[in-house]
């Protein structure tokens, strides 16, 4: 697979032998991913740094995708008798691992050769950051971005930055949130945060994790030249799946209820409700329309535990509200021009 030209950072790290990949466990949650899982594992086998552990947890797939693991050395497969969901399966895998770093990788995210090397090199240079994301390119058109981190709006939605935009060289830098399809985090920080919220099952669990991390002073960094090819559609047919709509919009509202400081909370509550109703009104088919409406109804009906957990979450907050305000996206005119990424993604590996 083609990479991207060597950068100044690459020139500094070329030939270095102090990048220790044995400090990493790569976790893949698989659910009916078909041949994509094999492509992801081949991408890992071709990495420029080796010695990392690979742990695949299969969520009771009904296809033969998990059997692909037998063709690869140093890949541990755990089969679950039930579909645990993306959040819970990742939590179980992280608990089982013992390395300093955890890398979460979707089976439909194929890493380019120097992906892990670049993540680890950036982590060495920036020890004050806890979570590292990477550039996602469209698997079917690597001249377009699939995402360069997540934009989190003060109005109750989130989307992938630069989604489907033409590929260009972009700088690495701080972001508020990174996509869970391919991210690296210190294991101790993941555990201290409580991992993914298993009540979400799947979708928005990465936004929620990064939101909590930021509020606790654990920052996220986007590594621009660490690239994966991301398919985003391994588990359903083309189009926005009602499953994705439902879980995405339900879970985003729970994310804001859990995490947004009280002074700012009315904005995302009103914004999320308004945008969800607008999406339902504009939906092209009845299944999608029902999914939006169910998401909003069930999010409010099931919000009690999230309201009650706000005090416990606030006890860990160290980020001043003034700094949070500067990190959120505020321009409402940007939202229609950028697809909120929770509706752009289809049903992921690990979903029901």
UniProtKB/TrEMBL annotation:
Span of domain Glycosyltransferase 2-like: 25-190
Q: Which domain of life is it from?
A: Bacteria
Protein family membership: Belongs to the glycosyltransferase 2 family.
Keywords, comma-separated and alphabetical: Glycosyltransferase, Transferase
Extract the GO molecular function terms from the UniProt entry: glycosyltransferase activity
What InterPro entries does UniProt report for this protein, alphabetically? Glyco_trans_2-like, Nucleotide-diphossugar_trans
UniProt-listed Gene3D superfamilies: Spore Coat Polysaccharide Biosynthesis Protein SpsA, Chain A
What's the protein here called? Glycosyltransferase, GT2 family
**What does the record list as coiled-coil region(s)?**
none
């Amino acid at each position: 697979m083609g990479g991207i030209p060597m950068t100044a950072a690459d020139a500094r790290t070329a030939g270095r032998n102090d990048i220790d990949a044995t400090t990493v466990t790569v976790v893949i949650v698989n659910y009916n991913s078909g041949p994509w899982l094999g492509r992801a594992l081949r991408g890992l086998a071709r990495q420029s740094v080796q010695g990392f552990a690979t742990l695949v947890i299969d969520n009771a797939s009904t296809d033969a995708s998990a059997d692909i693991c037998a063709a690869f050395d140093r890949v541990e497969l755990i089969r679950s008798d039930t579909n645990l969901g993306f959040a819970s399966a990742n939590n179980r895998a992280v608990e089982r691992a013992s390395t300093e770093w955890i890398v979460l990788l979707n089976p439909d995210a194929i890493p380019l050769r120097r992906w892990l090397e670049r993540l680890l090199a950036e982590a060495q240079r920036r020890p004050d950051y806890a979570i590292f994301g990477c550039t996602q390119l469209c698997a079917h058109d690597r001249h377009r971005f699939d995402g360069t981190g997540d934009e989190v709006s003060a109005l109750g939605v989130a989307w992938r930055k630069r989604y489907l935009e033409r590929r260009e060289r972009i700088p690495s830098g701080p972001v508020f949130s990174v996509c869970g399809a391919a991210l690296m985090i210190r294991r101790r920080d993941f555990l201290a945060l409580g991992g993914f919220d298993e009540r979400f099952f799947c979708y928005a669990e990465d936004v929620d994790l990064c939101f909590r991390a930021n509020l606790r002073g654990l920052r996220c960094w986007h590594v621009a030249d660490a690239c994966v090819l991301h398919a985003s559609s391994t588990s359903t047919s083309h189009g926005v799946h009602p499953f994705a709509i439902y879980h995405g919009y339900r879970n985003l509202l729970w994310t804001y209820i859990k995490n947004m400081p009280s002074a700012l909370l009315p904005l995302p509550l009103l914004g999320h409700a308004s945008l969800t109703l607008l999406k339902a009104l504009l939906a092209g088919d009845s299944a999608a329309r029902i999914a939006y409406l169910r998401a909003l109804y069930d999010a409010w009906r099931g919000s009690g535990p999230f309201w009650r957990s706000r005090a416990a979450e606030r006890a860990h907050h160290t980020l001043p509200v003034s700094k949070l305000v500067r990190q959120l996206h505020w321009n409402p005119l940007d939202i229609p021009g950028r697809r909120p990424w929770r509706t752009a993604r289809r049903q992921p590996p690990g979903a029901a």
